[in-house]
Prior knowledge:
Order of helices and strands: HEEEEHEEHHHHHHHHHHEEHHHHH
Distance between the termini: 25 Å
InterPro entries: DUF2851 (IPR021272)
Shape: elongated
Organism: Dyadobacter sp. 676
Structural class: alpha/beta
Radius of gyration: 29 Å
Protein name: DUF2851 family protein
Number of strands: 8
Helix content: 40-55%
Number of domains: 3
Pfam family, one: DUF2851
Amino acid sequence: MNEDLLSFIWRFQYFEKKALHTDENLSLSIIRPGHKNADAGPDFSEARVLIDGVLWVGSIELHVKASDWYFHEHEQNGAYDGVVLHVVWENDREVIRHDGTPVPTLTLNGLVKASILERYRRLLDEKEAVPCHRQFATVDHIRKYAMLDRALLERLERKASEVQQLLETNGQDWEQTGYQWLGRHFGFKLNDAPFQRLTRIIPWKVIRKHTERLLQIEALLFGCAGLVPDDSEDIYARQLQQEFRFLGAKYRLLDNVMQPHEWRFARLRPAGFPTVRLAQFAKLLSNTGGFLNRIVISDHFDEVRALFRIGQSAYWREHYTFGKKSRAQVPPLGTDAAHLLIVNAAVPLLVAYSKQRQQPELLDKAIYWLSEIPAEDNRITREWASLGMRVKTAADSQALIEWFNNYCTPRQCLECPVGAALVREPNP
């Protein structure tokens, strides 16, 4: 037994309630089990129970063992004085409130069908990545796709909250936040951290002053990134050095220059080298002016995709690194990379902006964009596809990844409509 299952049993009242009595042998009727509390304090609030003919309205606290009340030091917390019933699996100790009065206790052990416990144990013991793998087909489609919709919204909420935290750090400056959030995802995972650091070193207000001069933006980015070689015979590299010496001194950036070893080139195809990505990032910044504003005003998916389908300056169309000309033309940012930036950068930013500005139509637009992008192909999405789930769009794959990571992997089956259905209903 654990508190997750105990909470599930209490919440849905999956126990024998006829002639119910407390452990103190007082008659007990449960009128309303209460609302599950996601915050600190007792587990359920606003419950209504009839004990020995007296109506009590208050909180319900659940523990596997009654003595856990003292292990969690509830006796020192006045918030628990409002507990009207202590629901436990094993009553190993009398519980006294902070004010000295005893808390009535209900022991559920012996009142719950063994089949519920067995079905839950079977899920927890399952070795498959998706615990209900063997039984998934027995659950109706409505539950599955209701969970899919819920998981997508939870993922969007979670990522939007990350944007919100960054916004608070930036003093509610949306343009700085959009610039930093975009920069972080231009690292395409392997170089997320150095890109993130770079956008903290160079504020958006500095970049904004030079959006009409691509060479100056490149000088700021490559210079602060520490990637411009010293004493190079390369004409372009010397131009960047000259520009950066002036701009770096003007904006007091010279003391914050990064080290070349912070950037990762290994295990990357040349088209994904940080030098190429920085050149593309510079081009995007020079094209957009303000990244956030561009995605807010882009109504059609083709518009936002075109925003990311960017090339780079002439030098970086012929070079992957400084001073070494490539044999073939260096490609612009591809469709797959553009889609990743929409999914990971544009959509969360738009959702966060939608929430703060109370513009739900922007949330609808974000979901529409996801529905226009093909699903990711990875280990998690292939697992779901093998179970018969629809995996066609990024909206599907993003939801399935969230479902897998937040429910299947930590075995939070009772919080999932599919797992909950399998625990409470006999298998066919």
